[in-house]
Structures are given as structure tokens and as C-alpha cells.
Structures
1.
Amino acid sequence: MNKTILSAGVFFGFTAVIFGAFGAHGLENLVDAKAIASYKTGTQYQMYHALLLLVLGVLPKLTEKHKKQIFYVLVIGIFLFSFSIYILSIDTILGFNAKSIALATPIGGLFLIIGWFLLGYRIFKHFN
């Protein structure tokens, strides 16, 4: 499981850099400043959670079961939060109104919060 978690952390970090570069250089003439700012938020949160996955993958005292639980919650959160922001930010380029997925963003944020809570709970429980 640690290899899977670490691989996911690397993947999300790698793609956050690519998406960030695209947002900074490829979107400037295509969408408004508000959309670019939202897109940047998506890349920042994706990177924060990529780094968190790397930390999770190397924590020695957490059980595989607990790591797996936290991993799935964070991955769902990353996809729902960051990727919905990406789509919402570029919906004019995509040619459709993506507002129907707007609820995915706060749900994804909730999953990220739950992931942090579970990690904190497990750390405090196992490191006493």
C-alpha cells in the first residue's frame, strides 16, 4: 500500500506542476482573471495534498488499514475538489456550462477535511 500511496503522491504532484504551468501560461488569454485565480487554487490544493500523500506513505506507525482509509478519502477529495475547479474554470473553453458540477467542489473539500481529521486522529492515537 505504501508504494501505491507514494505513487499517487508523485502523480498528483507531477500533474499539479503541469496544470499550474498551463494555468499560468496557457489560460491567460482564454479566461478571465477570476477563473485563473480559481484554477490556481485547484493546483495549490492538489499540490498540498500530493505532499500529504507522500508523508502518509512513509509514516511508520500507522497501520496499512488506516493508511488505506486516509488515502482513499484524500484521493476522492483531490478529484472532487481540484478537478471540479479545473473544469469550472475552463468551462467557457470547453464549450459547455459546467455549473452542474459545482457541488463537487465543496464535497471534495469536505473529503479533504475528513482526510486531515483522520490523519490527525490516527497520529495522536498511535503516537501516544
2.
Amino acid sequence: MIKVGIVGGAGYTAGELLRILLHHPHVEITCIQSTSNAGNALASVHTDLLGDTDLIFSAELNTDLVDVVFLCMGHGKSKEFLSSKPIPDHIKIIDLSHDYRLEAEKNDFVYGLPELNLEAIKGANKIANPGCFATAIQLALLPLAAVGKLNEVHVNAVTGSTGAGQQPTSTSHFSWRNNNVSVYKAFSHQHLGEIRQSLKQLQKGFEKAINFIPVRGNFARGIMATAYTDCQLSEEEVLNMYKAYYKDHPFVTVSDVNPHLKQVVNTNKTILYVEKHDDKILVVSMIDNLVKGASGQAVQNMNLMFGLDQSEGLRLKPVAF
């Protein structure tokens, strides 16, 4: 059994991680750290786990009890934690924050997008789990970059309120978010760095603009990203190229019909859809921001790091209604 520890166990990504790992056939959860909830039952915070576990939060991470640690803290907190409380080298680390995603920062973390870095992830000891917007957008664009056909990109993506984290803010509480929609961080979102890094990994020298407009949606979870770029290939050629690129990746489906968000909510799936309009290719990408965009992808990475089938424990059912 893989012994798992979680640091920052009270947030949305930790709750989703616990929901998945409690039913993973090769995992034993041995430590869930939360400074603010030490001594409390998990189910008192993650109320959907009532009846599933009697585990309680601890004040500290006990490294004697774990094989892998998931860091589920806010951006900047993972570096702070690891600098003050180093984790022994034999313990694997999967960080769900932004802290170690960029190679330019000269760290020893592997960027954990399996559809891009599968073999590197298998041999890694430390993983930087991708961002949710970054996952949806990269999966929409990687096949074009892989054949050097990516031009200037225009992206519009709408995300659910859980993407803002559990701590209430002026734009995430119900009375503001419900029946509302708004743009934020236009052309400047923090995920742009990792998106460009991955595209350049496949299409050397890619310096075209990535025009990204993020949108706050009035729903709880999920991301719908639409990306378009100039492309002289036919729709059939692009569709075949996408299906070939993802044929060995179990969580990406290239659909022949336009998808909708409820097909992916509560799952680790990505659904892609391709259309040609004059000289432009439009790609629609759907994910659950908390699963494939965070905790599900983190478990997928854990599976690969420990030599398991990457889909182990992740065949989750979508929310149909």
C-alpha cells in the first residue's frame, strides 16, 4: 500500500483528493495536516465524507508514516513549507500550487501533465501539478504544437467558483457569483507562463501571442475553454491528428459532437472537440477544475510515479443532471 500524507487538508483540492484516495485500492491515508483544524474529524470540514472515514486532522506532518506527500496549500505556501520543514529525499512530493511549475526557477520538480511528460513523471520524485486553466488550454493546443502548426492563439475560458479556493472573497460568495459573470486577469493570468513553457517544449521557438480571457462563471465546478488559431489544414486532418496524439492517453477523448460541461464534472476526463471555420481551427476543451484540473491529475501522477496504471482509482462517474 502507498502511504499518503496531505498538507493543507482543509481546502477544496484536499477534499477532492481525499474523496478519490479513500476509495483507491492501493492507498492508505496516514496523515492529514491542517493547522487550523488539528484534532477535528475530516468529516466536520469535508462533510461529504461523513460515514466514509473516521480520520482526524493533525497539526504536523509525520514523515515517518508516508511514502508520498500532497501539498494542497495556497500559492507561495509550498515553498514556505518545504523551506521550513524539509521532507526526506525518499518521500515523493506532489505539489498542487503554482510554486514549482516554471522551469526557469531552476527547481527539481517535473511538470506533471501526463499527456506531455509521461515518461519523465514515471521517474520523478517531485511533481509540480499543472494549473486548472493551464490543463484545459494545453490539452486543447498540444497536438497542433507537436507538428509545428500553432500560430497566434485566442482563448476564452470560463471556470466555476471553486477555482478561487475555499476562502470566501468578494467575487466568490454566493450572492455575488450567482446569476453573474465577469472577466478577470485578461491577458495576464498566472497560468500563461506554464502554458507557453509546454507549447515551446513541443514547438521550439514558439513566441506567438496567447490571448487569454479568463471568465468567472456562475456555477461551482468545471472549465470550458475555447481556443482558435489560424490553420491551413482541413478539419478532417486536424481531427485525425488530435485522435492520433491522444490515442494512448486514457483521460482525453476527442469527440465528434460538441460537448457540454456536465460530461466531465466529477471526473478526470478531458473532452476535446474540433471545428474548422474558414482559415481558423476552433478547439473546445472541457474539464473538471478540481479533478483533471487539480486533485484527479495529482492522483494520476501518483499512480505513474509508483508504477501503477495511471487510471487506478480514477474511473469516476460524471454528474448527469
3.
Amino acid sequence: MSEKQPSSGESTLTVVLALSVNLAIAVMKAIAGVLTGSAAILSEAAHSVADTFTEALLLTALRRSGRPADRRHPFGYGKERYFWSLLAAVSIFASGAMFAFYEGFRTVFGEPEEQTRPLVGYVVLGLAFVLESVSWTQAFRQVRSESAAHGRGFWDFLRVSDDPTVKTVFLEDSAALIGLVLAFAGLGLHQLTGSSLWDGLASLAIGLLLALVAYVLARTNRGLLIGQQADPVMVKSIWRRLSEASEVDAVVDILTMSIGTDRVLLCARLDFDDALTAHQLEDACVRISAELRTQFPDLDEIFLEPVPRTDPELRRRVLERYGDLS
């Protein structure tokens, strides 16, 4: 990563747009679900309600994670974004997937239900698809622009990105568009066959879709919360840059951790040239840190620790972590 991107403002725009769209869609779907008696549309209404709660949680994440470091939190509050994003994933499952499963099982195994006013359902699902497409397009544009800025492919960047807000919105909106297609299919097959079984199966499919999205997002934020390594490409570049320093004989170990979006903590254990004086060693550490910050703006805190490469205890710990890399 050669240049830090000021994506916080765009992330806020993406989340606010998604919240507004989902709130409007939730109301429309709820009315259409009651009028048509469609389990799939009611499941989609619950889906949009869950998405609305999710966007509210993501806005909280953006606001609280931006607070500056203080005495109690010397590394800042960046990880709050991961915590609130994890709650957003739980919200998707608890209020979206579970309701869709309930409606699906009730319709599939319960008494056959008569369909009423299917045209209302088609119109609402069509309007919802258009509105969701607007939100999805904004999220897609942000992911595409950030992936290009970081020199990565679209899906590769989405996989390694340390900004869970835009990833959550993009996956939510993608799931919403797929869910609308499923609801439309369930509604149409119910009308064609006269059997509510199709409506129930569509609702179950929507529940599975939401559960999958919730799992992916929960796993992503879990890794970031417990101290995930920074982008491996950046770590390798840092290792190479440190190895090129004239004062460094060997890079013994590098520890990195994402402490917030576009914020990385680095601890590098280096075997310096034994001929360096204490003053020269201090100057080297200051210069190397400054050069690293210039080349890798995501580095928020840098710790350079002089260590001998032959220390058996340190070597054992490195081998336990990475294996024999020789």
C-alpha cells in the first residue's frame, strides 16, 4: 500500500445511503407482505429491517472508531469499528435469517395459504430492486476504487480489506438483490402453481442466504478483533525494506496487527551491525522509522527492537509462529 486513502467520508456516505434505502424498502415490503400474504416478501421485509439496524450499527462504528488515542487507549479506538461491525453481523442473523427461517418452515409445513394481490408484490419487489441497486452501486464503486488504489483485484481486496463497513454494506446489498430475485420467484411460482410451498421454499432460501452473509462478516470481524496480521503483501514489503537498511545485518522477526482501518502496529526485531555505537543505533532507529512511515502510511505505531539473531529463546518463538522458513 503506497498511499493511504481517505475513505472514511466515502464509507459514511455509503452507509447513510444504504440505511435510507433499507428503511424505505422495509416499510414497502412489510405492507406488500401483509397484502399478499407472501412469506417470502415478509422475510424480505425482515431482511430490510435487519439491514437498517445494521447500517445504524455501522454508523456507530464509524463515529466511535475515529476518536483519537488517549491515556486509557494509547493505540486509539480503531478496533471499535470491528466490534460494532460484529454486532451488525449478529443482527443480520438474529433479526433477518431467523425470521426468514420461521416464515419458511411455517409456510412449508403449515396449512396451505391463499395468495392475494400478487401484483402488489411484483410492483414492490421491482421498486425495491431499483432502490437496492442504487445503494449497491455506491458500495461497488467504493470497493472498486479502493481496490485499484491498493493495487489489488476487486475480490482479493474485499477479502483482505480492514474496513468492515464497506464490506458489510456491499455484501448486504448483494444479498438483498439476490433475496429480491428469490422472493419474486417464490411469488411467481405460487401464482402459477397455486401452491404456497414455493413461497415457503423461497423464504427458506432467503434465510440461508442471510445466514451465510452473517457468517462471513462475523468471521471477518472476529479475525480483526483478536489481532489479525496486516496485509501480507505489505508485511513482505516491510521485511524487504528493513533488510535493505545498511545498519541491519538481519531481520529476525516482524509482528504486525491491524488496530483500525488503515492503521497498523509494527514491531520489528532486528539484528543490527555490532560495530554501531549507541548513538548510531538510536539515529538508525529514528531514520528507519521515518522512512517506513513515508513508504507505508498505514503504519500507525512502529517499534524497532535490537536483538541478536542467535538468541535461542527468540529463535524458538519465531519457529513456533512461522515454522522453518530457511
4.
Amino acid sequence: MTHYSGSCLCGNAKFEVVGKFDGFYLCHCQHCQKDTGSAHAANLFSNSAKLTWLAGSDAVTTFTLPGTRHKKSFCKFCGSALPTIHEVGLLAIPAGCLDTEVAMSPTAHIFTASKAVWTTGLGDVPEFEGLPE
């Protein structure tokens, strides 16, 4: 069995996931853009992996966008995205909250019709290993 650990930015919420991921999607829908503040969300999904909160489960808040299936769980102290279990039993884990490396590459970009226009041509943007001087 594969074990993954994760936490929020402030360290209040800590969890473990045991099992395999079925997919790793980069979602460009407008809901994911809003709740990440970025071009896309990077979420791992599993129908069989088990989530266990090791600490801070009381710090986890879940928001469901009315009239949609869009859900986001986050730490009520630092706002970090955290795993969510959807009604159908699907576990969604924001890739950035994992402390364990994931060897799986993204499966696909989804909802690209909503892709932010400023993401076009990012390969031409300069890169820095740290904050530019």
C-alpha cells in the first residue's frame, strides 16, 4: 500500500492517505481559478484511497458552491487547500498540500475552454530559482 502524508501551511491540519490515485488533473474551470487564485487547480483523485486526519480535523472547513458539485476544504487558520471527500466517495487531494512526493504525472488538463488568457506562451517567460533581484 502506498502512504502519503500532508498538511496545511500553518501545520494545524495533518493527514495521511493510504492507497492509490486514479487521476491527477489540472483543472482550468473558473471555480478552480477562483478558489486557488491561480490559473488552475492541481488535484489528485481516488475512489479507493483512505484519508485519516492525524491532527487538526477541527481546523478543516469545507465550502460547497451552491447549485454545483464544486467543493473545497481548507484550514480555517491559514486558508491552505486540504483534501475533500465528495458525496460519491471520491477523494480529492490538492497536490500542493502533500508533504510526500508524488511520482505520478498529471493525467490531463481539464476545462481548458475556461483557461486564463494570460497562461498562453508561459514557456517564454523568464524563470528564477528564487525571488528575482
